[in-house]
Write a structure and sequence with these properties.
Layout: H1 2-19, H2 24-31, H3 35-47, H4 63-73, E1 77-81, H5 88-106, E2 111-115, H6 120-128, E3 137-142, H7 150-167, E4 170-172, H8 183-190, H9 193-200, E5 207-211, E6 213-214, H10 219-224, H11 230-238, E7 241-245, E8 248-251, H12 270-275, E9 278-282, H13 289-296, E10 303-307, H14 308-315
Parallel strand pairs: 1-10, 2-3, 2-5, 3-4, 5-9, 9-10
Antiparallel strand pairs: 6-7, 7-8
Helix pairs in contact: 1-3, 2-3, 4-14, 5-6, 6-7
Length: 316
Amino acid sequence: MGRINELRLIARVAQMYHVEGRRQAEIASALRMSQATVSRMLKRAEQEDIVRTTVIPPPGTFADLEAALRDRYGLTEAIVIDCSEDRDGAIMARIGEAAAHFLEVTLQPQEIIGVSSWSQTLLRMVDNIHPLKTAKAKYVVQILGGMGDASVQTHATELTARLAKLTGGEPRLLLVQGVTSSREAKLVMLADPVVRETLDLFGRLTLAIIGIGAVEPSELLARSGNGFSKQELAMLYDAGAVGEISFRFFDKDGRQVETPLNERVIGITLEELRKADRVMALAGGESKTAAIAGALRLGVIDVLVTDKFTAARLTA
């Protein structure tokens, strides 16, 4: 009977603390015991399974889907957002909101942040970031060439410049084309010392924020002039490409697709991306599901922000 009596008293202490909301000092006074004894009994209450901690996910969150994504793809974190419809515009907006909040909470002092240039979803994230009260970032680095058609080029430079202002970092722009006309043209651009200074930061990124694209370019990317011809896209499809990160293409199994087109891209490589301390990917939508699955198998992404419809497809 000694153990039953001991457990009964432990349960009473747990009830006073967890149910009645009384402080440990009050319990100690009421039961004529030391506060240290009360503390030990509360720990025992957990060990004896008298007190169980239950996490109840709030409505509009998807803990099971997030856990399934983490387990299947080896992610550090997965954020699955609620969305009323499986439509690109609505999905991008909600992903942008969630990514902005996560960035504000997790940003560390003196971060060197790399950002994709031509991602509409990343632009939605920047739209939702609140200015940080104290400067945190050191640099915000454009990791894909941002020159292009004048009507849309502002998207690339604005994204980098605005994120730098909001996080207190110094913007490092990559004012060259993301896709050059030839390998020779690329070499000429790489000779520029200002361009080299930005490229040298690729190996020092503490955080990379990227979009994931399908082989077929988005409307923004197509309008920018940074893209490939139909014949070149056909070459990528024939090589098994399902998606791209900063114009580095990969197949459904997470293997990089090697074609001569790589020689014309000015931007971060997948090898450089792997060296970043953290890589956060923002992507969702039915048309990108295969690309996201392939990207997750590359083994470079730590955090994924996506929507509930895409998460369900990725874990089916």
